Amino acid sequence: MTLDISTTIGNIKLYSPFLNASGCWCYSYKELEDMRHCQSGAYVSKTITMLPRDGNPEPRLFYDVNLSVNSMGLPNMGYAAYTHYSLTTKERQKPFFLSISTMDLKDTHQMMNMIAMTHLDTNVKGVEFNVSCPNIIGKGQMGYDIEQLKNFLDLLSESKLSEISRNDIAIGLKMSPYFDKYQFQTVADIIKDYPRLDFLTCINGIGNGLVIDNVKEESVIAPNNGRGGLGGSIVKPTGLANVKTFKRLLGDKVDIIGCGGVSDGMDAFEYFLAGASAVSVGTQLLRETPLAFGRLNQELITIMEDKKYASIVEFSNKLNIDEDIKIETQKRKEAEQNKELEQIKKRNAYDLSYAMC
Questions:
Q1: How confident is the model at residue 355 (pLDDT cuts 50, 70, 90)?
Q2: What residues make up the domain containing 335?
Q3: d(Cα 317, Cα 135) in Å, to the nearest integer?
Q4: b/e code 202-220 from CB counts within 10 Å (16+ = b)
Q5: Whole-angstrom Cα distance, residue 120 to residue 280?
Q6: Helix, strand, coil abundance in the chain, percent, nearest 5
Q7: Beta strands 227-231 and 68-70, pairing class
Q8: Which of 133, 202, 259, 357 is catalytic?
Q9: Is residue 133 among the annotated active site residues?
Q10: Alpha-carbon dihedral of residues 314, 315, 317, 320, nearest 10 degrees?
Q11: Are residues 92 and 170 in the same domain?
């Protein structure tokens, strides 16, 4: 049996469903080149601001076998540097996605329009807007501010970037982690109003986590009183829940990139079951380098062989959940009841009309 691990994000084809999480192994030209030549299906830049940014004071990143915590503060080389990189690597070995900051909407709008102007001369095939960074001191997450999120999406829909064919560029959002049913429904209703969105990445780090070094009796990172965004295996249940919930609410309107706690092929398989079309790797990439993608591809292929699946489509969004089954059963029951009522009405049509005379 020939196995196919390719997938699509919007209309952009990926020959492997794995990519790096923005922020991991994507700051410098060297790191980006490592990603371009490894066995991932696509690669994503650091979240970009218009001007270069140093980020928060160090130490600002910690990881071990269970988790990561960071308060990086969006360090990056600035828009011009990443544009130069994309112009000089036009040979499209794999799709390149830009992660764009929404911290300053004037700058964000300018970057949108510049991407639109240069996209034919670059290898950029996707743009992911980071509406969920938990590590900008003094600023909240746009993903939790509904009015601010709407205003941003209005700006995006009016930009030249939104006029580009989805065959050329996929447009998406890096989402905050949500925990309340009201939040999911409210955000999903907003997403439905913007047809040019192709994908959501679920989730960014869970904000304001505190990890303590009990030997030194201090926090493992310095910024924001030692608090930062959590990643790694401890966030996977939340990531899976966000993927599953948004897929149920949005259906095929958008593709979803699962993110959070992917360290092996089975983690990825679970994200696909929940409804993801692709998965991004963060903490594990820091531990293992981009060589991880070759292993992840092979582990996923082995799982598919064992389970007799020929392609990701065969098991994506196929998770069995009792509530979903009950809802479908109830829908079928109501449809059957309505059909019976219609048949009764047709059989009694003559008598009913006679009674009304």
A1: very low
A2: 320-357
A3: 32
A4: bbbbbbebebeeeeeeebb
A5: 26
A6: 45, 20, 35
A7: antiparallel
A8: 133
A9: yes
A10: 130
A11: yes
Both tokens of 77, joined, read 């080389």
Q: How many structural domains compose the chain?
A: 2
Token representation of residue 9: 């994000």
Q: Which of 88-92, 135-139, 186-190 has the lowest mean pLDDT?
A: 88-92
Domain check: are 229 and 327 in the same one? no
Structure tokens given for 311? 């392609």
Q: Kindly tell me if the per-residue pLDDT of 335 is higher than 80.
A: no
Q: Residue 127 contacts by C-beta under 8 Å, 6 or more apart in sequence?
A: 97, 98, 100, 112, 115, 161, 169, 170, 171, 172
Residues paired with residue 100 on neighbouring β-strands, in sequence order: 48, 129
Collect all residues with Cβ–Cβ distance below 8 Å to 290 and sequence separation of at least 6: 20, 25, 34, 35, 38, 39, 40
Q: Is the model's pTM score more than 0.85?
A: yes
Task: Report the CATH number at residue 36.
Answer: 3.20.20.70
42 vs 325, residue with greater confidence: 42
What integer pLDDT is reported at residue 324 of this predicted model?
A: 64
Extract the runs of DSSP E, i.e. beta strands, from the chain: 7-9, 12-14, 18-20, 43-48, 61-63, 68-70, 96-101, 124-130, 170-174, 199-202, 206-210, 212-213, 218-219, 227-231, 255-259, 278-281
What pLDDT does residue 92 have? 66
341 and 214 inside one domain: no
Nearest partner of 98 among 169, 10, 158, judged by Cα: 169
pLDDT at 124: 96
Check whether residue 225 and residue 341 sit in a common domain.
no
How many alpha carbons lie under 13 Å from residue 125 in its C-beta half-sphere? 20
Residues 6+ apart with CB under 8 A from 159: 109, 112, 113, 116
First and final C-alpha spacing in the chain = 69
Residues 227 and 209: their CA atoms lie apart, in Å, by 5
Same domain, 140 and 219: yes
